[in-house]
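User: Hi! I have a protein structure encoded as tokens and I'd like to know what sequence might fold into it. I'm fairly new to this, so please keep things simple.
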């Protein structure tokens, strides 16, 4: 069987690097040659243009260059072919480093110490040990599990919340709607690593933040979101920070990205902003396995790391 042709459609994410690496093994094009281009077998995409994929008669699989696939489903006409997403130890390691960094910074009162330094203030803040602090991770998938393991290694108490019931050694597991409030009530630092689906959109709102544990050794509740911006309500976070419902937040993702200059979150003294960069897909790690999957698929082997369309992730 001939090697199928690849359509690469990437907005942001440095498309040239993906193009160069994919082109080493397959013919890659950046635009279909006319409507219903029959030569395209695979699409490798990030935020593809709506309807781009709908009319490709010989498309056999779509590869997302991210772990999240909500960008794909922005297009209501995504064809019904298998969708492969990124699952990669390198990506999980990046995310786990981000989570450990932000959890440790909040735990060790980083914001307070930086503010003191600017004022040349010599004052020892209150200290707690990791085991006194409970980190609750929403989403114990590929990324959440790796982060949970790392946090356990640092000595934190770890809770997890998932859609279906799950087990993980050392983690107190909660699931579903019934498990949400008890999970939040037992959590000091909330880490959001959920996918964006119709069920999770807007979940991280004022009401939810109000259920976190505030009477704790940290002196309040903390939010860290590195999942997706539309999981949260930016205005509710600002309100929660202003009225003390939240002590601090680290936000990597926002309802609108790039975060508009007018957003109060940019200059908020209790917010640490990163530009959706907690864990960036690296083509040097990801293109090899992608090409290997295409080769194996053409030999009749099954694809893996497939998205469950029904669940939306
Ligand atoms: P996975 O699909 O492996 O895991 C998703 C987890 O979320 C699972 O534990 C799943 O539960 C849980 N979940 C999904 N829907 C619900 C729900 N309705 N209620 C409760 N739990 C739910 O995803 P990954 O860990 O690979 O990635 C997670 C997300 O991280 C991505 O979708 C993406 O949005 C984001 N991301 C952000 C990056 C960044 O740089 N900021 C980089 C990479 C990814 P269950 O176990 O029951 O299925
Ligand atoms: C992803 C991302 O989903 O980078 O991989 O956000």
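Assistant: Happy to help. Inverse folding works backwards from shape to sequence: for each of the 313 positions I chose a residue that suits the local structure. Here it is:
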């Amino acid at each position: 069987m001939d090697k199928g042709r690849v359509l690469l459609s990437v907005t942001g994410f440095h498309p040239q690097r993906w193009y160069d690496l994919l082109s080493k093994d397959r013919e890659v094009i950046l635009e279909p040659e006319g409507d219903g281009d029959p030569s395209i077998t695979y699409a490798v995409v990030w935020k593809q243009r709506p309807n781009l994929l709908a009319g490709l008669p010989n498309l056999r699989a779509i590869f997302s260059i991210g772990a999240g696939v909500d960008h794909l489903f922005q297009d209501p006409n995504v064809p019904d072919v298998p969708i492969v997403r990124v699952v990669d130890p390198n990506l999980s390691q990046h995310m786990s480093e981000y989570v450990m960094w932000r959890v440790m910074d909040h735990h060790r009162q980083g914001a307070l110490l930086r503010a003191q330094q600017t004022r040349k203030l010599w004052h020892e803040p209150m200290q707690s040990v990791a085991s006194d602090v409970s980190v609750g991770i929403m989403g114990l998938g590929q990324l959440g599990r790796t982060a949970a393991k790392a946090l356990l290694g640092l000595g934190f108490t770890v809770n997890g919340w998932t859609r279906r019931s799950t087990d993980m050694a050392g983690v107190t597991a909660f699931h579903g709607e019934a498990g949400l409030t008890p999970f939040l009530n037992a959590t000091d630092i909330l880490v959001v690593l959920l996918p964006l689906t119709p069920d999770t959109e807007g979940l991280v709102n004022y009401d939810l933040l109000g259920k976190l544990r505030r009477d704790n050794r940290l002196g309040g509740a903390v939010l860290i979101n590195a999942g997706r911006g539309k999981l949260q309500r930016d205005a509710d976070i600002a309100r929660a920070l202003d009225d003390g419902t939240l002590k601090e937040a680290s936000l990597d993702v926002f309802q609108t990205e790039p975060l508009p200059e007018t957003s109060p979150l940019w200059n908020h003294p209790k917010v640490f902003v990163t530009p959706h960069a907690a864990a960036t897909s690296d083509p040097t790690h990801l293109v090899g396995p992608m090409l290997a999957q295409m080769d194996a698929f053409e030999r009749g082997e099954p694809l893996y790391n497939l998205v469950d369309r029904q669940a939306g992730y």
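A useful reference point when you look it over: Residues 66-68, 139-144, 161-164, 166, 193-197, 199-200, 226-228, 252-253, 276, 278-279, 313 surround NDP (ligand 1) (CB under 6 Å). Feel free to ask if any position seems puzzling.
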